[in-house]
Write a structure and sequence with these properties.
5 strands, binds zinc ion, binds guanosine-5'-monophosphate, alpha+beta, HIT family, subunit A, 5-stranded antiparallel β-sheet, 3 helices
Length: 125
């Protein structure tokens, strides 16, 4: 998609990792010492459309998430997908957040990324 930020980044971004149709980038506004985003190169709006990926591609995407975490040095981490605006999704190109870094890092990581406090409370996340 021409007007999609993450399509542009997938084409020409500074990657942490890239393979088999997927890229990983550092989040511009990290919520943990390590905060990486995994995106498919091809545009899918949200996780709701996960069925648009075939079985092989879905497995590759999940393996790519795990590979990326290992590549950036994480053994313990949180994987998170915001699905829809009310859940905090702000960029409508499917992406997986990988958050971690350091023994106490996850204690500081919110259960939801990108939600203001009142919205988190409303959703009881
Ligand atoms: P969402 O809120 O949609 O789940 O996550 C979008 C994420 O993309 C946010 O964590 C935000 O900080 C990150 N982000 C937004 N714009 C950019 C950008 O231009 N570059 C990078 N690397 N990350 C971005
Ligand atoms: Zn896109």
């Amino acid at each position: 998609m021409d007007d999609c930020l993450f399509c542009s980044i997938a084409r020409e971004g500074a990657y942490v990792h890239k393979a088999k149709g997927f890229v990983a980038i550092n989040d511009i506004n990290p919520q943990a010492p390590v905060h990486v985003l995994v995106l498919p190169e091809r545009h899918v709006d949200t996780f709701r459309e996960i069925g648009e990926f075939g079985a092989k591609e879905t497995k590759q995407m999940l393996e790519f998430v795990a590979e990326t975490a290992a590549k950036v040095g994480l053994t313990d981490y949180r994987v998170l997908v915001n699905v829809g605006a009310a859940a905090g999704q702000t960029v409508f190109h499917l992406h997986w957040h990988i958050l971690g870094g350091g023994p106490d890092a996850l204690a500081e990581v919110p259960a939801a990324v990108g939600l203001a406090e009142p919205a988190q409370a409303e959703l009881e996340l």
